[in-house]
Design a protein that fits this description.
This protein is mostly beta strands. The protein has one helix and 27 strands.
């Protein structure tokens, strides 16, 4: 909270009356009495978030406070009584200021620090969580796959073997390791009394990727309504939008066969329920029914060997059997998931309601399905659990991964009937529905 004190002096003058005397030219000088009255105006404003003229988010401080805290003034706030103070730190530095940025527009393997570590400490003891926004985040991609994949390629696909980004959570479980393309993604983590660190480790021998990042860390005090109440790594507050796995290139309008999800991912994506809305529906952001054009959903192998079919419920065991025996190690968990055309199912799981979906076709209908379809859930809170193990099930492609082995291999290169690539992950649209 910032305070200004202004002193205004008002001079109140009393003019004595002048008395005129007939036939006299003398003028009696009136007496003047000056009184000074001091008026104090106290102006206070909170250190709240503000929009800087530079385009960044800042915090409202007095000009003197901004300078003493090491920030940069960029525009005004609080009716021009304050300045919008932007904070930015470099590799190896720390900050306890809200709305702090860590920016490298083009990483140099010869001059920039490796690893590059940023440390963020609480602004005050009331801070409960940090939101980490990856406004820009491009690192080297994980190990990927080609159409001529070998059986042993599955054990390393999706692993961050070149670059990696880790976030510490002292005293608790750390978020999963990420790499590749993550622009537009975010994470929520508990704010630690011991501070939290973001560590970016770069393979300086790999220079084919133009690495760059702009990370924003926002601090939230306990009880803030914009903060997730549950233990959610990601939290979406809009009534409609999209969700995607880490390393999904959301800048592309098509799905590449080189698109892979990251290995060893276990976290929840939560969606804040809008008032008077009772269900949420999901469908692939990129949908296709044409062989050779993949949809933006691929989380495992087909439920049957001869053709691509949806896989749900007990098929999604969470176990990848090597070498290339069964490809159901990855799945999504959405309570009460059911076809959009079904009657409202109970939380217990009636009317074809399932909690797990895997495979390369997004469809939760009970009978074998060869085409994608919207699926919905009435379970509250709205949540998508992501469960990816540490390997994929591959057969030598492209022939080996095709029929009759589609339940064993996740690397069907044909995107048969518009199915996704079983190792790609997901990019889903979501929308809430009124009660």
């Amino acid at each position: 909270m910032c305070t200004f004190v202004f002193l205004s002096v008002l001079a109140i003058l009393a003019q004595g009356s002048a008395e005129n005397v007939a036939n006299k030219t003398a003028v009696e000088e009136g007496t003047k009495q000056a009184k000074a009255l001091s008026i104090f105006n106290v102006v206070t404003f909170p250190n709240s978030a503000c929009g800087a003229t530079s385009g960044y988010n800042g915090t409202c401080y007095t000009a003197a406070e901004c300078s003493s805290l090491g920030g940069t003034a960029s525009g005004t706030c609080a009716s021009s009584f304050g300045v919008c103070c932007v904070f930015s730190i470099s590799c190896g530095s720390s900050s306890s200021s809200n709305n702090t940025y860590a920016i490298i527009s083009s990483y140099s393997t010869s001059t920039d620090a490796d690893p590059c570590t940023y440390t963020f400490c609480k602004t005050n003891s009331d801070v409960c969580k940090l939101r980490i926004d990856f406004d820009t985040m491009v690192l080297a991609a994980p190990y990927t796959v080609s159409t001529v994949a070998n059986v042993d390629h599955g054990v390393r696909t999706g692993h961050c073997g070149y670059d990696s980004l880790t976030v510490t959570n002292p005293g608790g479980q750390s978020p999963p390791i990420i790499c590749g393309y993550n622009t537009g993604q975010h994470m929520w983590i508990p704010a630690s009394d011991s501070c939290n660190a973001i560590n970016i480790d770069v393979d300086t021998g790999t220079t084919t990727t133009t690495r760059k990042w702009q990370i924003k860390v926002t601090q939230y005090e306990c009880g803030n309504s914009m903060m997730p109440g549950q233990d959610c790594l990601q939290y979406h507050t809009a009534a409609s939008g999209s969700i995607a796995t880490f390393n999904w290139d959301t800048s592309s309008t098509t799905v590449s066969s080189g698109q892979v999800h990251l290995a060893n991912q276990a976290y929840d994506i939560c969606i804040r329920r809008t008032r008077s809305y009772c269900s949420v529906c999901y469908t692939p952001y990129i949908s296709s029914s044409i062989t050779g054009i993949a949809s933006s959903y691929g989380v495992g192998a087909s439920s049957t060997g001869p053709k691509q079919q949806a896989a749900i419920a007990t098929l999604c065991t969470g176990i990848t059997t090597q070498p290339a025996a069964l490809g159901f190690g990855d799945y999504l968990e959405i309570a009460n998931l059911q076809p959009a055309t079904s009657a409202i199912a109970s939380i217990a799981g009636t009317v074809n309601a399932n909690s797990r979906i895997c495979g390369a076709i997004f469809n939760t209908a009970a009978s074998p399905q060869t085409a994608g379809a919207t699926a919905c859930s009435h379970a509250i809170p709205f949540k998508v659990g992501v469960h990816f193990d540490d390997e994929e099930s591959f057969l030598a492609g492209p022939a080996g991964a095709a029929s009759p082995n589609m339940n064993k291999a996740e690397n069907d290169p044909a995107a048969t009937d518009g199915a996704g690539y079983g190792y790609s992950g997901f990019w889903l649209s979501y929308w809430q529905n009124a009660c």
